[in-house]
Design goal:
This protein is about 30% helix and about 25% strand. With about 160 residues, the chain is α+β, with helices and mostly antiparallel strands. Strands 3-4-5-6 form a 4-stranded mixed β-sheet, with helices on both faces. It has a two-stranded antiparallel ribbon with strand order 1-2.
């Protein structure tokens, strides 16, 4: 459902009503409709820092590497296998993390997510709720495996 009469002050794009995993209702840009927001200074600086660190260790690192159905913030080429480094500052729904991770998995690329503290907290809660509903019948997730989703290595979330 698109709301044609609700616009953000900096972009004339359709909006979509959403509800966060914690029940907060809000409007968001309809998928693919906002090209007005430039990449944040944080995101650009984070990608540059990650690439510089990888290069200082002797690895080849490419920023915004395009692949078949994916774009890595930084692709680090390692002898054993390439690794995508994703720098996440803004909110992203759990399904988007999982979908992106699956695209990398399908391409035989390891992925590491660097997530801001505030986002990590929200992501952790989302993973907790998802696992509780889908794996534990609504009961609490045991603390020894609460941080990762089933089928994904723990480093996916660190």
């Amino acid at each position: 459902m698109f709301f044609r009469s609700v616009f953000f002050p900096y972009a004339s794009s359709f909006t979509v009503p959403k509800t966060s995993p914690l029940g907060l209702q809000f409007f968001a840009h309809a998928s693919g409709t906002c090209g007005a927001a430039p990449e944040s200074i944080w995101h650009h600086a984070a990608k540059e820092a990650v690439a510089a660190a990888a290069r200082s260790l002797g690895y080849r690192a490419t920023i915004e590497q395009l692949g078949n159905g994916w774009t890595a913030d930084v692709l680090v080429e390692h002898l054993s296998a390439p690794a995508a480094i994703e720098c996440q500052h803004s909110y992203q729904h759990l399904r988007d993390y999982v979908a992106q991770q699956q695209r990398y998995r399908n391409a035989d690329i390891r992925c590491l997510w660097l997530v801001m503290d505030a986002r990590w907290s929200a992501l952790g809660k989302s993973m907790w709720c998802h696992r509780s509903r889908h794996e534990f019948g609504g009961k609490a997730v045991p603390m020894d495996n609460a941080v990762a989703l089933a089928g994904y290595p723990p480093q996916f979330w660190t």
